[in-house]
Amino acid sequence: MTAKEAIRLRGTDAEERGLPGMSDEQILDEMTANSAYVGRPFVETEKGVRYCRPQEVVREIL
Hints:
This protein is α+β, with helices and mostly antiparallel strands.
C-alpha cells in the first residue's frame, strides 16, 4: 500500500491541503504531523498487518 492509498479524505482538509498530489514522503510527513490524515483501521494479527477498508477485508487476516 502506498501513502496515497492510506490518506483519509473524509472529514479532513487533506484534499484542500493538496495531500493527494504530494509525494509519498511528503504525505507521510503530513500524516506524522496530523494523524487525522491516516486512513483507518489498520489491523495486525499473526498473519500480518492489513488496511481493513472495507471492513470485510479483516476476515482475510483473522
